[in-house]
Design brief:
Helix content of chain A: under 10%
Radius of gyration of chain B: 14 Å
Largest sheet of chain B: 7 strands, mixed
Shape of chain B: globular
Structural class of chain B: mainly beta
Largest interface: A-B, 23 and 28 residues
Largest sheet of chain A: 6 strands, mixed
Distance between the termini of chain A: 41 Å
Oligomer: heterodimer
Strand content of chain B: over 45%
Number of strands of chain B: 11
Number of strands of chain A: 11
Chain lengths: ~110, ~120
């Protein structure tokens, strides 16, 4: 069955540094890969989507890469701020009517001032 | 104006009881979902409805029964609650099930169910 792993449960980083979160998957490559942010007690909020034929996607301080050979996506936050502290979830999207998004367990990022 | 709203936000109940969680979306989306997030934080799909029609039913005990009276609403009814049902239940919606441009999900704030 399809598995998805996010590199670490928790990541602490100093303010101003670049945070890098990893998402690895097994078996089939999805059509898309999505990243969400979840704050405590809240629902996940969509951040970015990257297609299998895209190497990189950027949005403000966020950058996502997608390597279907390595079966890996990297999520970067540059110039990190304490307000970036949250859990970040990656999700595989097979773009199939009957296949739901498959979410990873998430990485809890703490940005320390 | 809340896009995906679910009630109640908290639900504490005894084992064996029956309870319901309601969800409404005002985004005009065709597809709605129920996800369960357990204590280990995994978000697992339970059900998906597209235009009121059940599309996905992921190995969920039949004590759980979703109902979609119209495409803006997807309710979840749980019979004979068990301790293991304690979790946060998230409702979500997406524009359509088969996506072309973006397949993002819009989540509600979650309903924390505690079974004692």
């Amino acid at each position: 069955s399809q598995k998805i792993e996010q590199n670490s449960e928790a990541l602490n980083i100093q303010e101003g540094k670049t945070a890098t979160l990893t998402c690895n998957y097994t078996n089939y490559s999805p059509a898309y890969l999505q990243w969400y942010r979840q704050d405590p007690g809240r629902g996940p909020v969509f951040l970015l989507l990257i297609r299998e034929n895209e190497k990189e996607k950027r949005k403000e301080r966020l950058k996502v890469t997608f390597d279907t050979t390595l079966k890996q996506s990297l999520f970067h936050i540059t110039a990190s701020q304490p307000a970036d502290s949250a859990t970040y979830l990656c999700a595989l999207d097979f773009n199939s009517g009957n296949t739901p998004l498959v979410f990873g367990k998430g990485t809890r990022l703490s940005v320390i001032a | 104006d809340t896009a995906v709203s679910q009630t109640p936000k908290y639900l504490v109940t005894q084992m064996g009881n029956d309870k319901s969680i309601k969800c409404e979306q005002n985004l005009g989306h065709d597809t709605m979902y129920w996800y369960k997030q357990d204590s280990k934080k995994f978000l697992k799909i339970m059900f998906s409805y597209n235009n009121k029609e059940l599309i996905i039913n992921e190995t969920v005990p039949n004590r759980f029964s979703p109902k979609s009276p119209d495409k803006a609403h997807l309710n979840l009814h749980i019979n004979s609650l068990e301790l293991g049902d304690s979790a946060v239940y998230f409702c979500a919606s997406s524009q359509t099930l088969r996506v072309v441009n973006t397949g993002e999900l819009f989540f509600g704030e979650g309903s924390r169910l505690t079974v004692l």
